[in-house]
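Hi D.,

Good news: the full-assembly prediction came through. Inputs first.
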Amino acid sequence: MINFSLQEANPMLAPEYIPLAILFILATALGFLVVIIGNLFGPRRPSIRKAMPYESGMRPIGVGTRRTPVRFYLTAMLFILFDVEVIFFLPWAVVFRELGLSGLIEMGLFLLILLIGFIYAWKKGALEWE
Amino acid sequence: MDWFLILEWVIKAVILLLFLTAGFAYVTLFERKVLARIQVRIGPNRAGPQGVLQPIADAVKLIFKEELSPKDADKVIFMLAPVITVIPALVITAAVPWGRSINLFGREIALGITDLNVAALYILAVTSISVYGITLAGWASNNKYAMMGGLRASAQMISYELGLGLAFVPPILLAGSMSLVDHVETQAAMGIIRWWLYQPLGPIIFLIACIAEVNRAPFDMPEAEQELASGYHVEYSGMKFALFFMAEYIKMICVSMIGATVFFGGYLGPFVDQFPILGPVYLFIKVVGILFWMVWVRATSPRIRYDRLMAFGWKIMLPAALFNLTFTAVLVLLTGA
Amino acid sequence: MTISLIVFFLLAAVAVLAALGMLLSRNAVYSALFLILNFITVAIFYLMLNAPFISIAQITVYAGAIMVLFLFVIMLLGAEKLPQNTSIRWQYPAAVVLGVLLALEFGYVLVFQIGGLSTAAALPANFGDPKDIGGLLFNQYLLPFEVTSILLLVAMVGVIVITKGDKTTR
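Then the structure:
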C-alpha cells in the first residue's frame, strides 16, 4: 500500500515558520475585516454618474483597460534575469568565507557574463524609457 | 504540543499587527504635522489637543463613506486588490527582531515574531508579491489613469527591487548568515562604523530603493495627482481606499524597521546588554528617525520624471549596488573579517 | 491522521483546485492569479519538506517575478478579453493522447515503483540550510551554476532583439 511517510520524514512545519503562519492568517483576517466594515457601515446609493470611470470630469472615451506598451514586458523580463542573479548572490554571500578567493572568482565569472548582457542592453537602449 | 508557546506566538502576532495599524494612523498625523512645520504651517490641530485625535476622526469618516465601484469594473478583483496589497505590508517584518529575549512569568520570551535563516530572501519574496495588489487594482478599475498608475507602479517597484535585494548582500557577507538577528549581533560585535566602512554605499542604496518601493515622493510618479489623478486607487473610496493608504504607510514603517535593523543597529543601544527590554525602545526611536527622514525628503524634493526615474533605477542604482557588493566581498577577503 | 497530514491534504486540494481554476477560467488574468495561488501552495509544500530556501526562492522568482511578466504579457496582448470560442482544432485529440499517456505512466509508477517512493530516511540536522545549499551550489554544482549565467545572457539578448529589433529594420 501507499506509505504516507510524510510524518516520519518531517514532524510538521519547522517551528520557526508556525508563528509566520499565525501572523499570515491574522493579517488576512484583518484585511478582509476592514473591507467588511466598509461594506456594513457605508451607505449605498448607486447612480449612473457615480459608476462612470473618473476621467477628470469628462465623459470617458473608449474602454478603460487598453493594451499596454511592450516596454513593460522588456522591463519585467530584465527584472527576472537580474532577480535570479540576486537569488544566487544570497547563498553565495552566506558561504563566502568558506569559499574564499575561489568564491570571488566563481561569482566574478558569473557576474561578468551577466554584465556583458547588461552593457548590451544599455547600448541597445533597452534601459531607456521612451 | 505546547499551548503556552502557541499562545505566545498569537500574542506577539497581535502585538505586531496592532503596532502597525496604530502606527499607520499616527504616521499619517506625524507626516502632516512635520510637513506643516517645514512649510511654516501648524497642521491639523482641531481634533483633540494638538490634533492627536485626527487619525480617529479620519477613520470614522472613511467608515461611513459610500463605496463606489465603476461600471464594467471586474468586481471580484476590484474587491480583492486592496486586501492583496495590505497583507504583504502586514507580514513583511515577521523576521525583524525587536530585541534580545526577556524573562516574563518565568518564561524565556524571544522579542520578535520569528528568526528565519532565510530572512533576507523572505523580505524579497514578500516585496515581490506586493506588486500584484497595485497592478490588479489598476487593471480591475476599468479606468485609464488607474491602469497607467498601476503599470507604472509595478514597473518602478520591480526595477528598484533589484537595488533593494543587492543591498542585502553585503550584510549577509559580513554576518555569514541571512538571519536578521545575526546581522544585528554582528553589528554589535563589529561596531556600527566598521559595519558601514565595509559597505559605504549600502545604507544609501537601501534607503533610496525603499522610497521607490513604497512609491513615495520624489518617486511617487505612479500616484502623481497632477498627471494621473492619484493613479491606481483613483476609483477607490471608503474603506477600500483606506486599505491602500494603510498599505502605503505600513510599508513605510516596515522598510524603516528593516533598514534600522540591517544598517543602523536595530535594537542595539546603551545599556541594552543589562536591560534587554530597552531593545524595542531603541528600535522604535530609530524607526521614527527614518520616518522623519522620509517625510523630510517628501517635503523638499520635486517629483522625478518617470523616464528619468526608471533610468536612475537601472543605470545608477543597479551598477552602484553591484559595485558596493564587490567592494565588500574584496574587503572581506583581504581583511579576513 | 496527524495535523501535518490534514494540512498536507488541505493544501493539496487547494493546489489542485487552483490548477483547475487556472485551466478553466476564461479570463487570462484570473488564470494568472490561480497560477500564483498554485505556486504559493507548492512553496508551502517545500517548506513542509524542510526546504525553506527553495520554498522562498520559489515565491520570489515564480510567484513574484515571472508572474508579473505573465500579467504584463496578458495586458500587452489584451488576452484577457479573447472571444469565447478560439480553440485550436488539433488541441482536443492531442490533449486526449497526452492525458492517456500520463495516466499510464502514473499507473505504472503506482503499481510497480511504490517501494522506491518511500523516503522515510532521517534528514540531516541542517537539511535545507542556506549554508548547505551555498556549499553544494558553489562546489559540487559549480558548472551548472556558471552555465546558468549564459542562459540568462541568451534570454536577455533575445528579449532585446524581439522588442528593439524592429526599430532598425523599419
